[in-house]
Amino acid sequence: MPAPIDPCAEPAIRVATEGDVDGVLALVDRLTLFGPPAHREVRRMAEVDRQVLAAAIADQHAGQGVFVIDGVAGIAAVLHMSTLVDYYHRRPNAHVSTLIVDAAAEGQGLGRRLLAHAEAWARGRGDDWMTLTVFPGNTRAVGLYERSGFVPDMPGSSSR
Fold it and tell me: Domain N-acetyltransferase: where (predicted)?
């Protein structure tokens, strides 16, 4: 369901609640629109993303959080933050697990606002490192991340 933002209102970022689960999960299919690798099964990816997001909304704590921006007709954008241990730093870091903007709300700065919220969340926890992953075919997201100061970490990484 499209979720345009009221142009007269500054959209607030809030913690997702159990009442947001359906609206958040409705956005998940957007994650695979940008060319996942051929060896990844799109249906399985969406299924796992839905499970992870629903579980994260039900169990928010210092190590993870799910945040949303409401649109006129539902959830316009969602951010899921988690904690990983960086392989080389050997200490916890903030990780943008999911950032999705509804198609009807694209171009309104919601991704940028959620990414700024992610940085504030990480700083508030004392993290000095934040990571994310993105499919190279998701050029709009890649551009946002690059404009926000993210750089490719391991462009030669592979999976099998």
Answer: 11-160
The 10s digit of each residue's pLDDT in 66-80 is: 999 999 889 999 999
DSSP class per residue in 42-99: HHHHHHHHHHHHHHHHHT-BTTBEEEEEEETTEEEEEEEEEEEE-TTT-SEEEEEEEE
Q: Which amino acid is at 64?
A: Q
Structure tokens at 154: 């391991």
pTM to 2 decimal places: 0.88
Closest by CA to 9, choosing from 70, 67, 80, is: 70
Question: Which CATH code is given to the segment(s) 13-146?
Answer: 3.40.630.30
Asked if pLDDT for residue 159 goes beyond 60, the answer is no
Question: What is the residue extent of each domain of the chain?
Answer: 13-146
